[in-house]
């Protein structure tokens, strides 16, 4: 009996040691991995606009760029493997208060090193996002007049124009399989699409989807309001975006099927919510909002995909904007 007890005790000790191995080796659970998913965003502190990164649980805040006063960094996006960050910046604009305004697309390592100007067009380039395989970047540019959607290789070569419309197209977002691009536009299919901006311009904005080569444009929303910043869910079945469909100028987060059906409102607040982005597993949505109690300034928030469980991540920054999870294709 005593020998059996000793064997049992030794077995329990061995089992306990084996169970401890994953902890000692730093193995993480799925929840740990999700909490460690990175979000990049723009933070404003002391009148400087820089790119920051933070874990999805609010830990690990780090600054990736160090702008000069008056320069603007905007719309960061993480590459699918998390090794690169692409963003737009006015750092080359020598006269930032005078037209024509200059904004270029830059790429850098995820730690902020290796900064490279990809566009060098001397015009306005903005809202970059990686393709799911990390080989291309979609962005908007006004280099040929109004804002249209372009793609280029991640080294800046092979620039190709995807849209050519008299109205501004913006906020491109790749589908997870790379076959589609959702975007926002002031164009109105079969109504005033062919009219020049002076005659047909409108404050209305809708969400559209097209093939990744620019063909097959389909309109997904048809509101009298301003829809913007679409982003796909990781399974490609849903699109989130911000709109003020139901009230004044306060924006909320909405979700719909990829064909535009089954519209659902996820946030409902007297303040504005912008720039939604799905977490890698589709369970969370990050966005920016000016709902911070008593401060009325913008912060980065995370909610569950059904709109519950609101959490503020950026308590210690004055103003935060343009969040982007590390996913296969986002945006802005």
Describe the structure.
With 332 residues, this protein is mainly beta. The protein has a single domain, classed as Neuraminidase, CATH 2.120.10. It is 10% helix and 38% strand. It has 3 helices and 24 strands. It has helices spanning 2-25, 30-35, 197-200; strands at 38-45, 48-55, 62-63, 73-78, 84-89, 104-109, 116-117, 125-130, 136-141, 148-153, 160-161, 169-174, 180-185, 206-211, 218-219, 227-232, 238-243, 252-257, 264-265, 273-278, 284-289, 299-304, 311-312, 319-325. 41% of the residues are buried. Mean pLDDT is 83; it is low at 1-34, 190-202 and 328-332.
Q: Could you give the topology of this structure?
A:
Elements: H1 2-25, H2 30-35, E1 38-45, E2 48-55, E3 62-63, E4 73-78, E5 84-89, E6 104-109, E7 116-117, E8 125-130, E9 136-141, E10 148-153, E11 160-161, E12 169-174, E13 180-185, H3 197-200, E14 206-211, E15 218-219, E16 227-232, E17 238-243, E18 252-257, E19 264-265, E20 273-278, E21 284-289, E22 299-304, E23 311-312, E24 319-325
Antiparallel strand pairs: 1-2, 1-24, 2-3, 4-5, 5-6, 6-7, 8-9, 9-10, 10-11, 12-13, 13-14, 14-15, 16-17, 17-18, 18-19, 20-21, 21-22, 22-23
């Amino acid at each position: 009996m005593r020998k059996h007890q000793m064997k049992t005790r030794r077995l329990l000790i061995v089992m306990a040691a084996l169970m401890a191995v994953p902890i000692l080796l730093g193995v993480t659970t799925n929840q740990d991995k999700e909490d460690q998913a990175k979000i990049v965003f723009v933070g404003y502190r002391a009148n400087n606009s820089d790119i920051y990164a933070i874990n999805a649980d609010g830990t690990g805040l780090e600054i990736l760029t160090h702008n000069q006063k008056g320069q603007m960094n905007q719309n960061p996006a993480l590459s699918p493997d998390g090794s690169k960050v692409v963003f737009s910046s006015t750092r080359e604009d020598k006269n930032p208060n005078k037209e024509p305004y200059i904004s270029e697309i830059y790429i850098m390592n995820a730690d902020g090193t290796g900064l490279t100007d990809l566009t060098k067009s001397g015009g306005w380039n903005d809202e970059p996002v990686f393709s799911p395989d990390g080989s291309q970047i979609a962005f908007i540019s006004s280099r040929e007049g109004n804002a249209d959607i372009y793609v280029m290789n991640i080294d800046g070569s092979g620039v190709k124009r995807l849209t050519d419309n008299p109205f501004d197209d913006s906020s491109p977002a790749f589908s997870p399989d790379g076959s589609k691009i959702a975007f926002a536009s002031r164009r109105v299919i079969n109504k005033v699409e062919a009219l020049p901006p002076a005659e047909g311009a409108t404050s209305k904005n809708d969400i559209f989807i097209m093939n990744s080569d620019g063909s097959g444009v389909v309109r997904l929303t048809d509101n009298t309001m301003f829809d913007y910043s679409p982003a796909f869910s990781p399974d490609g079945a849903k699109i989130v975006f911000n709109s003020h469909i139901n009230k004044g100028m306060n924006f909320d987060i909405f979700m719909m099927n990829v064909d535009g059906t089954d519209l659902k409102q996820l946030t409902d607040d007297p303040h504005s919510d912008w720039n939604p982005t799905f977490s890698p597993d589709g369970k969370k949505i990050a966005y920016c909002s000016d709902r911070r109690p008593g401060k009325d300034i913008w912060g980065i928030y995370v909610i569950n995909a059904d709109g519950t469980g609101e959490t503020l991540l950026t308590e210690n920054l004055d103003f935060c904007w343009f969040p982007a999870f590390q996913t296969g294709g986002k945006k802005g």
